[in-house]
Design brief:
Blueprint (H helix, E strand, L loop, with lengths): L1 E5 L13 H10 L3 E5 L5 H14 L2 E5 L14 H21 L3 E4 L15 H19 L4 E4 L13 H11 L4 E6 H7 L3 H7 L4 E6 L15 H9 L5 E4 L7 H7 L11 H14 L1
InterPro entries: IolE/XylAMocC-like, Xyl_isomerase-like_sf, Xyl_isomerase-like_TIM-brl
Protein name: Sugar phosphate isomerase/epimerase family protein
GO molecular function: isomerase activity
Length: 281
């Protein structure tokens, strides 16, 4: 398994010139690669990052999310669905330019939209159709899509891995699978290891994220049982730390991050990679 670090701990707008030293530190701390927000990046920056990562011998995965007021695969409004497909294609292209092979994220629907009801049949079908088109485009660039079920407070279309499996089976493409996230599983799954075992063949990517979004290993969502389960199911892809703090103003209200979760802003990375390596040893 490879260990990655999501740059959203420090920035939601990665810039190759500003964040070179950060990438060098991530390499020094013992990571195999990084995860970059591919949706908020232009092609020139993606290409530049790709060259830097190659020089540093760092691998890469990419992440994206959609704002429901601008783009929504599940929307009843055709323009919002078209916008979602365009944004996904942009992120897929950038993933390719970065040198990555996986684009992940809660791509089932636009975030920030709730109706007061659970998913309706037409919303579900709209999302399946939009993600199928995105998946077909991604296949042409040899990119996998890892769709992330997230908790009910952030999304209502798909909250559990079981629901995610049903969704991707309807999409019906071999390059469209799931992202399993310890934070969201801690909220939504009755038993996280069991849920991961049942969805094992469809898990393309894993996020290591503590229950409070802080340092992996400091809470109750990232336990030794998680790593044992991954070994049992034969998972051998990326384990990427996704942690947050007070350093990215745009994420504070969106993710309800009302306090710091560690003594030092880099602790989630520096201490988190040590926690993961200990359990993988």
């Amino acid at each position: 398994m490879k260990v990655g670090m999501n740059l959203l701990l420090w920035t939601d707008k990665p810039n190759p010139s500003e964040h070179l030293k950060l990438l060098e530190s991530i390499k020094e701390w013992g990571f195999d690669g990084v995860e970059l927000a591919a949706d908020n990046m232009d092609a020139g920056d993606a290409r530049a990052f790709g060259l830097i990562l190659k020089e540093l011998d760092l691998g890469c995965t990419a992440i994206a999310a959609l704002n429901a007021s601008e783009a929504d695969p599940a929307s009843r409004e055709s323009q919002l669905r078209e916008n979602a497909l365009a944004k996904l294609k942009h992120a897929i292209n950038n993933t390719h330019l970065l040198g990555g092979k996986v684009l992940c994220g809660p791509l089932f629907q636009g975030l920030g939209r709730f109706t007061g009801r659970g998913p309706q049949t037409d919303e579900w079908d709209n999302a399946v159709d939009t993600l199928r088109q995105a998946g077909e485009f991604a296949a042409g660039l040899d990119i996998k899509l890892a769709l992330e079920p997230i908790n009910r407070f952030e999304m209502y279309l798909v909250n559990t891995l079981e629901e995610g499996v049903r969704f991707i089976k309807q999409v019906g493409l071999p390059n469209v699978g799931l992202l399993a996230d310890t934070h969201h599983g801690n909220i939504e799954e009755l038993n996280v290891p069991d849920a991961w075992r049942k969805a094992a063949e469809h898990i393309f990517h894993v996020h290591i994220s503590e229950n409070n979004r802080g340092v992996p290993g400091s809470g109750h969502a990232v336990t030794g049982e998680i790593f044992q389960t991954l070994k049992e199911i034969g998972y051998d892809q990326w384990l990427t730390i996704e942690a947050f703090g007070q350093q990215v103003p745009g994420l504070i209200s969106r993710l309800h991050l009302w306090r710091d979760y560690s003594e030092h802003p880099d602790d989630a990375a520096r201490l988190g990679v040590q926690h993961i390596r200990k359990h993988l040893a």
